[in-house]
């Protein structure tokens, strides 16, 4: 296993779960496991350097948590305030209730929201009548929303929400690879509004992400990483050991190790779970085409500033989970997450923790500013948007924490070309967030599938059908 992020850990655990007799070694370049997942505890605050929760509507993360006995450590989002705000003309407004990422499911909140103009609302309502697209090839998220709901809904609602999730530019992002469910809705129902109305009604109030579907480890993401690692034999994990080269030899797959007593190590099979850029470099000597497909995957950069304040310094009621900022507002932050409102135990009593996201593909140069400047930007923006008066008691910068792969239009075809190329190399599997989803559940699934493929092809010893079926998926 190359890479000890959540993908590599899930893959390693899956291999041993299915075939305990396997000898597995996990090489991680850093001195700690988890990759982008990292929790910092400071002065009573619990600060996530990257992901702070995951969705449970797909089974893979929650299923893994159950299998390792970690599910009792998961907490849901706080039940009050399951709303998000959006900025319009410098003021925070609730996203219309029932507006879920890209489409409305309730009429009244849309009619009454101050976020859209009367013309914008009328154009949104016309979506019901817009015929479905005849072509079935991929298109950008932005093109899809402008075509169905009009420019204003895109600029004021969808761009900030999607920009917040992917830190990317929706004019480049693939609809098929990021929000395929909405493409399917159009094809099946002819209209997203019609599709949303046909869905079973949920009693929960809310907007933005489907907050009731998210959970977080009570003690932060690092505790999940530690729980998976604890299920692996201690001697199987080699920290501080970057792999610099990968080669197929007569003795098997040869890994070149840095900072290790031995220069090389040999294995029957390898799963590479590093991000696209290092994976591309490792593929250079193996398959040039594959290396170049991976090398083309663009990553958006974003820095996160975490600020802790005494509650009384903030005049806004913070009756929501966070705020997203449309690019059209021309501010210097993408979004701010009210972490201590969203989950318990993120800040001491009478304090709040707010994580501010700066940069992303549309303002890439901001992510690279010096720490002092990132802190200044975050504090100025929060003081203007939330009425913060006074100094934070905690400040912490995760520089360029978010190197998020961007699934541009045509990404699904790219993935299928890569999968085809990979079939030429028995015993080699690739997994991670460059392929079929950036979310933690998708990464876990990607790692587990890679492990299962290796076992089913017999390159890493084959699992008997009984062994495989003893785990519910
Ligand atoms: C800011 C941010 C917020 C996010 N928020 C959420 C969220 O709320 N919910 C959610 O579900 N997802 C979220 N995500 C996405 C999710 O966290 C990531 O996609 C996922 O954690 C990636 O895991 P990974 O193991 O594939 O990659 P990584 O975490 O990048 O791990 C790869 C590992 O490979 C190692 N490595 C690299 N090169 C080598 C080498 N040559 N040899 C050995 N090791 C090497 C690295 O050191 C690293 O540890 C977020 C991501 C970011 C960046």
Q: What would you note in describing this structure?
A:
There is one protein chain. The chain is globular. Helix 11 (276-283) packs antiparallel against helix 12. The chain has 3 domains: 6-35 and 220-298 and 407-469, FAD/NAD(P)-binding domain (3-Layer(bba) Sandwich), CATH 3.50.50.60; 53-57 and 76-95 and 208-217 and 302-402, Alpha-Beta Complex (Polyamine Oxidase, Chain A, domain 2), CATH 3.90.660; 96-199, protoporphyrinogen ix oxidase, domain 3 (Orthogonal Bundle). The strands form 8 sheets. It has a 7-stranded mixed sheet. It has a 3-stranded antiparallel sheet with strand order 4-10-5. It has 18 helices and 23 strands. It is an alpha+beta fold. The protein is 35% helix and 19% strand. The model is unreliable at 462-473 (pLDDT under 50). The protein binds flavin-adenine dinucleotide. The site of flavin-adenine dinucleotide has 35 residues, from helix 1 and helix 17.
For the largest sheet, list the strands in their spatial order.
Answer: 7-6-18-19-20-17-21
The CATH fourth-level homologous superfamily of the largest domain: FAD/NAD(P)-binding domain
Q: What's the count of strands?
A: 23
- CATH topology name of the largest domain: FAD/NAD(P)-binding domain
Bound ligands, each once: flavin-adenine dinucleotide
Helix content: 25-40%
